[in-house]
Specification:
The structure is a single chain. The protein is of the alpha/beta class. The protein has two domains: 4-198 and 387-403, Glycogen Phosphorylase B (Rossmann fold); 201-385, 3-Layer(aba) Sandwich (Rossmann fold). Helix content is 44%, strand content 17%. The protein has 15 helices and 14 strands. It has helices spanning 18-32, 79-99, 114-126, 140-144, 151-166, 176-183, 201-218, 240-251, 268-278, 294-300, 320-326, 338-346, 358-369, 379-385, 388-403, and strands spanning 4-8, 36-42, 58-61, 64-69, 106-110, 130-134, 170-173, 192-194, 225-230, 257-262, 283-287, 303-307, 332-335, 350-353. The strands form two sheets. The chain has an eight-stranded mixed beta sheet, with helices on both faces. Helix 3 (114-126) packs across helix 5 (151-166) and helix 7 (201-218) crosses helix 10. The radius of gyration is 21 Å and the shape is globular. The mean pLDDT is 93.
């Protein structure tokens, strides 16, 4: 069975954030499985994009047709501009679907929620099959991030969320916790399926070998243990705690470790300002790197770190960066509970401490760098469980289920 797929995600390559990469890798995998894929997206945000790539309104990338719509408004911490950007994307997407409704066998939308509004409306009016992929649950996540606090807005966003679910033939989540969250909102389990994140082990091993020497020259801190935070530097990660941790090491005269921020995000200017004011010379900002370098960066690091703010909803998530970290064999320390903590423990990947726990992180770092720490990750089992082949098998079930209707 070969299908003509329209995938809707507001962010796509050259953006490097989790949703954009998920959309790209899934689209390219569909193409490898003989499907025809068109992605309807927006123009990339510069601060989250791969450096040196000029995005076009229409282009073909790795046999995926990419169509970009201008949303006019920049997406940042300003909630009003963010909403206006989402609204413009919804309008443009629905116009495109109406004009091309006979061209596609199925519509696949990927969170955030606005990406699913136009295909849900098309599903309701034109009965076009619609699958909604939900790596992030909105408005819950926006409330957890502190970006949505108005009670009236929250009420109507929950109404919109339920409407989108009701006008999706199938819905996928990335963790069992998210599955249960949506089911508890009154959505039948018959619609739901759990499809985890995935790894591309061949890509990882190829680029590790190719760029290992180059990265060793770029990240060159003799006689230092390297702790790295890689990816989007956003508010939900509460990255300031890592400056507090490095301040403790600095005040104690511990010159053994250096902390690297690799990536970009809305919190980066603030972190640079604090680092300068505290004169922390054990914190370095490497900036954005092409994704081909990331395997070598992870291998070069002695510890990889991640964190979430303390919030019950965030216990339902396994961040994409954690899955990417896991493929490196480098010890991981994460501040998280719930599904992320269970993930770390299941595959013996490192240490899960309490979210944003400065002392817990510091003690975990000392433990991992100590001689007695025994790190034997279950990497083979992890790679088997998170194979892209498993993802495609689940999507084939989704296609069959949708196209029978």
């Amino acid at each position: 069975m070969t299908l003509k797929i329209l995938l809707l995600q507001q962010y796509y390559f050259p953006e490097m954030a989790g949703g954009a990469r998920r959309a790209m890798e899934l689209s390219e995998q569909f193409v490898k499985n003989k499907h025809t894929v068109t992605v309807l997206t927006s123009f990339p945000r510069e601060f989250r994009s791969m450096p040196g790539f000029g995005a076009k309104e229409y282009e073909i990338l790795n046999k995926v047709t990419v169509i970009r719509k201008n949303t006019i408004f920049n997406v940042g911490r300003n909630v009003i501009f963010r909403m206006l950007s989402y609204f413009m994307y919804v309008v443009n997407s629905f116009i495109y679907i109406v004009q091309n409704k006979k061209k596609y066998d199925i519509l696949i939308s990927m969170a955030p929620l606005p990406s699913a509004i136009a295909p849900a409306l098309a599903n309701k009016i034109y009965k076009i099959p619609h699958h909604f992929d939900v790596p992030d649950i909105l408005p819950d996540l926006g409330i957890s991030a502190g970006m949505i606090s108005n009670r009236w807005m929250i009420y109507w966003l929950y109404k919109l969320e339920k409407w989108v679910y009701n006008n999706s033939d199938t819905i996928s989540t990335i963790t069992q916790g998210q599955f249960d969250n949506i089911n508890n909102k009154g959505i039948s389990k018959k619609k739901l399926i759990c499809i985890s994140g995935w790894i591309d082990d061949q890509y990882f091993s190829h680029n590790l070998k190719l760029f290992k020497d180059e990265i060793s020259k770029l990240i060159n801190y003799p006689n230092k243990k390297i702790i790295s935070f890689i990816g989007n530097i956003g508010a939900l990660q509460n990255p300031e705690i890592f400056l507090d941790i490095m301040s403790l090491f600095y005040s104690e005269g511990n010159n053994e470790v250096v902390f690297l921020f690799i990536g970009d995000g809305i919190m980066l200017p603030y972190l640079k300002k604090i680092t300068l004011s505290k004169k922390l010379d054990n914190v370095k900002f490497i900036g954005r790197l092409h994704k081909k370098y990331i395997p070598a960066v992870m291998e070069r690091s002695d510890i990889l770190v991640a964190n979430y703010v303390t919030d019950e909803h965030l216990e339902l998530y396994i961040p994409l960066k954690l899955i990417e970290y896991a493929n490196s064999d480098t010890p991981i320390i994460i501040g998280a509970r719930g599904d992320s903590k269970n993930f770390i423990e299941k595959y013996q990947l490192g240490i899960a401490t309490s979210p944003s726990d400065i002392i817990g992180f510091k003690e975990s770092i000392i433990k991992v760098l100590g001689d007695e720490y025994n790190h034997e990750p279950k990497t083979s089992r992890f790679r088997e469980d998170y194979s892209i082949d498993n993802v495609i098998k689940n999507y084939n079930l989704i296609f069959k289920k949708n196209l029978k209707k």
